């Protein structure tokens, strides 16, 4: 080593080191550039500021309808499809008549479901299967709901599923089921979340269990889409005004009838927006186009408490 230094007049080592360092720096910069490009490509997504979920992959949910043996109780249930499919893999002779316990927290009365159905939009999983679908009719288990015996009604199941009138074409990408939600501030600064026709006062609806169905049902299957605030700022109903201004007169008339009956405490046998898919779709598209930011309380009193405080990252078309 000393001879080497002497021959190079103590310059060769440093020149060689400089060459190596320069080469190393060049290679490092090239690699960092490639890595940055890769990162930019992998993060080439759009952050949707009005769309929220629990950061889970889209799965399938069975929707089914059950009636108590005395006919007094009618419920719509949301069932984890993977779990149910595992049960159904048992031989048909063993599966038939098998008892399943359904969680009342993941169930809605038929009237309650009719109110929220217009805000539900079935999506598709990575296999192109709907994220909400009817329970297969080849299976007839005994049903128990919190100790109360029920029986499944497949015909009614299909009917209530059809109340989810907003059908969007499958574009080849996985997409969760969507729930459209609006905010509303009432008298004395009362806070409300509005899903379809159902109005939930906060935080009472989180405490009394009125929103338990949403919290359970949305685990890995649904995105919340914020449409905007519909607080009555000028004594005008925003929805009713939109229907009248855009020529949806029949829908406006029925909706006015609905509001009148609901005010009087009569909420059964009313025509929801699911009967007027075009009108409701036009309203939703209009509200989405406004791109209104949610108020701060909507995050703290609704999204965070439900666990849906993550904004959705939408990948570009064709990448999923």
Structure description:
The protein has helices spanning 2-7, 12-42, 81-88, 92-95, 110-116, 154-161, 204-207, 212-217, 238-245, 249-263, 277-290, 296-306, and strands at residues 46-53, 61-68, 74-80, 99-102, 107-109, 120-121, 132-134, 142-145, 148-152, 177-185, 191-195, 198-202, 222-229, 310-314. With 320 residues, it is an alpha+beta fold. The chain is globular. It starts with a helix and ends in a 6-residue tail after the last strand.
What is the multimeric organization of the chains shown?
A: single chain
β content, as a range? 15-25%
Query: Helix and strand succession?
Result: HHEEEHHEEHEEEEHEEEHHEHHHHE
Number of domains: 2
Low-confidence stretches: 1-15, 34-47, 313-320
Shape field: globular
Q: Tell me the structural class.
A: alpha+beta
Helix content: 25-40%
Largest sheet, if any?
Answer: 7 strands, mixed
Our count of helices gives: 12
Task: Give short descriptive properties of this protein.
disordered C terminus; 320 residues; alpha+beta; 14 strands; 7-stranded mixed β-sheet
Summarize this, please?
With 320 residues, this protein is α+β, with helices and mostly antiparallel strands. The protein contains twelve helices and 14 strands. It has helices spanning 2-7, 12-42, 81-88, 92-95, 110-116, 154-161, 204-207, 212-217, 238-245, 249-263, 277-290, 296-306, and strands at 46-53, 61-68, 74-80, 99-102, 107-109, 120-121, 132-134, 142-145, 148-152, 177-185, 191-195, 198-202, 222-229, 310-314.
């Amino acid at each position: 080593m000393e001879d080497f230094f002497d021959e190079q007049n103590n310059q060769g080592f440093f020149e060689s080191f400089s060459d190596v360092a320069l080469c190393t720096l060049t290679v490092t910069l090239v690699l960092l550039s490639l890595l940055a490009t890769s990162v930019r490509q992998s993060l080439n997504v759009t952050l949707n500021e009005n769309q929220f979920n629990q950061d889970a992959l889209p799965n399938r949910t069975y929707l089914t309808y059950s009636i108590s043996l005395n006919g007094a109780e009618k419920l719509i249930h949301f069932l984890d499809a993977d779990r149910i499919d595992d049960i159904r893999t048992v031989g048909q002779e063993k599966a038939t008549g098998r008892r399943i316990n359904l969680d009342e927290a993941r169930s809605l009365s038929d009237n309650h479901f009719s109110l929220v159905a217009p805000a539900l939009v079935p999506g598709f999983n990575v296999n192109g299967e709907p994220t909400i679908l009817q329970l297969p009719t080849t299976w007839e288990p005994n049903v128990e709901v919190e100790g109360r015996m029920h029986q499944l009604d497949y015909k009614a199941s299909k009917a209530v599923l059809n109340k989810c009138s907003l059908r969007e074409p499958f574009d080849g990408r996985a997409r969760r089921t969507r729930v459209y939600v609006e905010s509303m501030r009432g008298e004395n600064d009362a806070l409300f979340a509005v899903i379809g026709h159902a109005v939930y006062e906060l935080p009472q609806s989180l405490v009394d269990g009125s929103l338990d169905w949403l919290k359970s049902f949305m685990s890995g299957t649904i995105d919340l889409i914020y449409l905007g605030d519909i607080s009555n700022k000028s004594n005008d109903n925003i929805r009713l005004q939109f229907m009248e201004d855009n020529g949806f007169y029949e829908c406006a008339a029925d909706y006015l009838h609905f509001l009148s009956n609901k005010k009087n405490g009569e909420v059964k046998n009313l025509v929801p927006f699911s009967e007027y898919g075009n009108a409701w779709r036009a309203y939703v598209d209009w509200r989405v186009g406004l791109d209104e930011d949610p108020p701060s309380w909507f995050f703290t009193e609704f999204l965070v408490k439900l666990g849906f405080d993550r904004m959705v990252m939408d990948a570009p078309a064709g990448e999923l």
